[in-house]
Design a protein that fits this description.
Order of helices and strands: HEEE
Strand content: 25-35%
Shape: globular
Mean pLDDT: 85
Helix content: 10-25%
Strand order of the largest sheet: 1-2-3
Length: 69
């Protein structure tokens, strides 16, 4: 199955900006890395501006693709 990876209509934001102006359950596009699995669907995410706990529903992960730090 092919997956489109072209430009997104949503502009990427930073962790710093998200912490300052973000809202609960707000979909965002971040560029950085997952630092660790906190538990359940919760992960710690980091970019060059800070860290934040994010919720990533299991159904959003690519099937059969391993994910690690």
């Amino acid at each position: 199955h092919a997956q489109y990876t072209g430009p997104s209509a949503a502009a990427a934001t930073t962790v710093k900006d998200l912490l300052a102006t973000g809202k609960d359950d707000q979909p965002v596009q971040l560029h950085g890395r997952i630092v660790r699995h906190v538990g359940g669907d919760d992960y710690e995410f980091a970019d060059g501006t800070g860290t934040i706990r994010v919720e990533i529903d299991r159904k959003l992960w690519a099937a059969g693709q391993p994910v690690s730090e």
